[in-house]
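Sequence design from tokenized structure. All designs in this work follow the same two-part layout: the structure record, then the generated sequence. An example of the structure record is given first.
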């Protein structure tokens, strides 16, 4: 796959960060697409290779040359990324707008959390409902799955429905743990998935939040009166 990806980039004289995607089945792989940009999943590559892809993307754009060759890039361990979305998996992953009333982020060794929201912020239906990219690393896949399950258990967001419980159930799924899955994985294993009861951690956090919550939480869009997004009038952003 790596050789095919490099060949594809050379054919079009591509020079910068990019991702070539393939589908793999029965010992063969098939070209899917090439994304000529940094990927949402770039954190996984950075965790296993120890290379800052964003920094190198900028340096290459400035005309600098790489100070490494392919044989210098060494992969170690295993990394997993989960995207935390404001969406409801039990309703075909429909967006779930709301206000982030309380948020507790996972911490610890081997955990990286690229979060894009804060407490008091309104998550609207006008944009992609991605809240955070939670990435973990460990020495092997089994331990990485365990670490991700633990990190997801520490991740608490109150005020809107997220896919965090759904992701935890995936981490516990036997087929996923055995790496026996396909593009039909969700339909085959979670077609009738429903949101269960909140965990004790979530209940405790909710009780504490209810005692300390401010009387009124203002949407993020109204915090800056000089923001162009606050004075758009009847226009709606199409982003």
């Amino acid at each position: 796959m790596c050789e095919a990806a490099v060949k594809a980039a050379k054919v079009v004289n591509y020079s910068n960060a990019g991702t070539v995607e393939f589908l793999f089945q029965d010992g063969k792989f098939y070209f899917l697409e090439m994304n000529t940009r940094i990927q949402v999943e770039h954190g996984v590559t950075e965790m296993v290779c120890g290379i800052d892809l964003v920094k190198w993307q900028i340096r290459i754009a400035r005309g600098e040359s790489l100070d490494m060759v392919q044989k210098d890039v060494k992969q170690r361990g295993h990394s997993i990324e989960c995207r935390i979305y404001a969406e409801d998996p039990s309703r075909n992953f429909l967006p779930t707008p709301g206000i982030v009333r309380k948020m507790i982020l996972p911490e610890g060794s081997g955990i990286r959390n690229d979060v894009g929201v804060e407490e008091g912020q309104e998550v609207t239906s006008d944009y992609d409902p991605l809240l955070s990219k939670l990435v973990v690393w460990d020495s092997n896949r089994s331990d990485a799955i365990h670490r991700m399950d633990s990190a997801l258990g520490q991740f608490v967001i109150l005020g809107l429905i997220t896919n965090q419980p759904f992701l935890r159930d995936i981490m516990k799924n036997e087929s996923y743990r055995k790496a026996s899955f396909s593009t039909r994985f969700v339909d085959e294993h979670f077609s009738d998935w429903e949101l269960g009861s909140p965990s004790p951690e979530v209940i405790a956090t909710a009780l504490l939040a209810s005692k300390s919550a401010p009387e009124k939480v203002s949407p993020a869009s109204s915090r800056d009166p000089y923001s162009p997004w606050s004075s758009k009038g009847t226009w709606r952003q199409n982003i």
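The longest helix spans residues 141-154. We note this feature because it recurs in several other targets discussed in the main text.
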